[in-house]
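fwd from M.: "can u put these together and see what the complex looks like"

so here's what she sent:
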Amino acid sequence: MSELQPRSTRCHDILGCSGEGVVRIAYNTRRHREEFQIVSSSTASATSVNRVFNFNAGPSALPLSVLERIREELLDWRGSGMSVMEMSHRSPEFESINAAAETGLRKHLAIPDDYAVIFLQGGGSTQFTLAPMNLCLPGKPVDLLHTGTWTAKALTELKKGIAHRIAATTEPVKFTRVPRKDEISLSPDASYVHLCTNNTIEGTQYHAIPETAEVPIVADMSSDIASRPFDVKKFGLIFAGAQKNLGPSGVTLVIVRKDLAERADKNLPTIFQYRTHIKEKSLYHTPPTFAIYIVGLMTEWIESHGGLAGIQKRNETKAKLLYDTIDSSNGFYHCPVEKDSRSLMNVVFRVAGINGQSAATNPDEASEKEFGKQAAAAGLVGTPGHRSVGGMRVSLYNAVEPAAVEALTSFMRDFQRKRG
Amino acid sequence: MSELQPRSTRCHDILGCSGEGVVRIAYNTRRHREEFQIVSSSTASATSVNRVFNFNAGPSALPLSVLERIREELLDWRGSGMSVMEMSHRSPEFESINAAAETGLRKHLAIPDDYAVIFLQGGGSTQFTLAPMNLCLPGKPVDLLHTGTWTAKALTELKKGIAHRIAATTEPVKFTRVPRKDEISLSPDASYVHLCTNNTIEGTQYHAIPETAEVPIVADMSSDIASRPFDVKKFGLIFAGAQKNLGPSGVTLVIVRKDLAERADKNLPTIFQYRTHIKEKSLYHTPPTFAIYIVGLMTEWIESHGGLAGIQKRNETKAKLLYDTIDSSNGFYHCPVEKDSRSLMNVVFRVAGINGQSAATNPDEASEKEFGKQAAAAGLVGTPGHRSVGGMRVSLYNAVEPAAVEALTSFMRDFQRKRG
C-alpha cells in the first residue's frame, strides 16, 4: 500500500492572466487536502483559505479570482455605497451591470445582432416548457434527438399534448454516444429540432452539430455553453443555466433568434413569452441581479483566458489528461462512452474491484464508493456519478483548474496502485 | 439657506443584538454622505466601507451584518472548502442550508404543518400565472381585490381566459386606500380571492385581512412578508419575492396549503405544479442556492431582532417618524394615502414648490426632482417614486435602519427650511 506522496511546493497562477495572484499548493498527506495561500495585490494583507478541488456537476466550481472580486465588492460596489444585491434593477448602476453581462457574452460567444440575449429564471426545466409554448407552429411537430436524462425530461413535457417525433435515439446503446448523421431522420416540416449538446449524466457531447437545413435547432446547452467556440447561427434558440460554466445557479441564459420569438401567441402569459423579455432587456420584472453580475464577471474571466479559443484549449488539455489516465489504466478504470462522443465537460467512468477484473465488464460499486470517499478526504470533491446511474463522474467545467485535474489523476494512479 | 448640520459622532449597533459591531456615523457636510467605520470582532482588522442609506423599493437594503457574514463565508463556507455558490444542490451541506432557511421561516412566520414552504424562481409575475393554473376549479371564478399596479398585472393575466370577477376596487379613489369591508362583494363559489397585502407603488397596506369564509386567499405579499406577525391560516397561498424583506432577488418564497396544491391537473407542465416542488422540497431542479442561503441568514437576523414582534415594533417606529415628519410639515410634504391604509413599508408623498402652495393641491415636480437629487447627494438613495406615478417613495423594509430614517427626516426638515 502506497501513500499519497507529498508534492513539491510550487507556484501556480490561477487568478487569470493578470498575474495578480500567487497560489502555493502543498500536499499534506495527513490532511489530504490542498491548502492555498493567497496573496492578492488588490488586498493589503495575505488571506489564507482552505479550498478543495471541486468537480461538482453543477452548481460547480467558480474561479477563485471571481470569488475574490465578489468579496471585495460585496459591501460597496465600486463606490455606489451598496452591494449589487441592494441595487434597484432600474438604477443606472444595475443597468450597466446587466448590459456588461450581455456585451461580454455577445463578444465571446460571437452572438449576431439578429439574436437576442436574455437572462431568465427557472433553469433548463422551465425552458423545456417555454420553448414549445413559444416556438411551436400549428400542425408542425417537434423533432427530438434523444440522448439521455435531459432529453427524456424534455420528452416528458412534449408528451403533454404537443405534437412531436423522436427523430433519433441512442437509448438502444444505453446513451453511450450521440446519434450518427445517418441515424437522424428529421421531419421535413418540424417546428424545430430539440437536442442537448452535452449530456451531463451520460458524459456525451456533440462534436459536430447535426445539419437541419431550414429547421431551427433548440439546444439545451446548460453544461457546455461557453466551453468552446461555436456557431450561434446553427441554432434557433439556445438555453443554459449559468451554474456550470457561467456563474451561480438562479439565472438562465437564453439566446434566441428574434424572428422565432415572434411565433408566440400574444395571449400566452406575459412572463412566459420570450418577446416580453427581449423587449424589456431582461428587466420586465425583477431579474436575479446578483447572478447576472457574476455572469458579467465570468465573461471578464473568459477574456483573461484568451476568450473561448483559450478556454477550449484549456478544457481539451484537462479532459485529455483525465481520459488518458482512464484509458491507460489497463482496465482498472473504464469510460463506457464511445471516443468520438466523449464529453470534455463531464467524464464518466467505472472502477474495478480488488479482484483484478476489468471495470468494463465488472465494475465494482464498493470500489467506486471507496474512490469517492478517499477522493473527498484528499480534497477532491464531487466525483461520484449521478444517483440515477452510479459510477464516477468528474465535471471539468471552465473554472476547474488544470492543477485540479493533475491532483485528481495523481490520486487515481495512487488509488489504482493500492487496489489494482 | 441653512446647511446640513454635522451630527455628533455616536455609536450605534446595527449588527443585530450580538453586540459584535460598532458603527461610527459622522455626517460630513462637504461629502453629504454617511461614513461607516466597521469594527467586527469576527475579523482581525478594522474595515472601512462607505455605505449609503438605501431606500430602494426592491431589490433593497440588506443588513450590514448579513452582508459581512456572506463576505466572510464567500470562499469557504464553514470549512467545506468551497463557496455556497459552488456546492451541489444535492450535497448534505446545501441540504442543511435549504432546510435551515425553511426552518427559520417556519419558526418566525409561525407556518403550520399543513402548509408547505417552497423556494421558486420568477417572482410575483410568475405567481400571477401559476396560481390560477394550479388553484382554479372548473366554473369557479377568481375574485380579485383591485388595489393598484400589482393587482392590475394579476388582472391582465386573468383576462387571458380565466373566469374572474373584480370583487372590489379602489381605482375610483386613485388607489389611495385598500377597500373597506362593506365594499367587498365576494362570489360565494370563488376558486380563491386574490389580493395584494401591501401595494408597493401606491403606498397602501391592509392592516386587517378581509374575511372570506371558506374561500382561500391568494396573497401577493412581496413587499410586506416578514415585516410583522400575521396569521398564515387566513391564507391559502402566499407568495413573495425575497428582494424586499428577506434577501436578494432571484428567489420567490411560496407558502401554500398542501391540500390546495392538489387541485392542479397533473398534466400541467411539471415545473409549473406546486406539488412538484413540495414533493422535492424545492430540489426538483437546481434551485437558486445562494439566494436561499441568504434567506436563511435573514431569518437568523430576524431572530436577533426579537422575531417578527421585534421587527414589527422597529418598522412601526421607523414609519411613524417619517409619517409624522410629513404630517407636521404644514403641507410642504403630503401623503395622499388615507391614514388607516398607510403602508409601513413604502411611504409615498408629494413635495410642494417654492411658491408657498400646498403639496396636497399643488405638488411640484421640479421640487420633487430636486429632493431626489439632493437626497442622493447626501447619501440618501432611492427616494424618487415609481416612474409610473411620480412623487417620492421611501421604502422602509426590514433592513432599513432607524438611523437611516432619522437621517432622512433630518434632511427633509432641512430641505423644507431651505425651500418652504
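replying to her w this: Chain B has three domains: 7-64, 84-304, 307-419.
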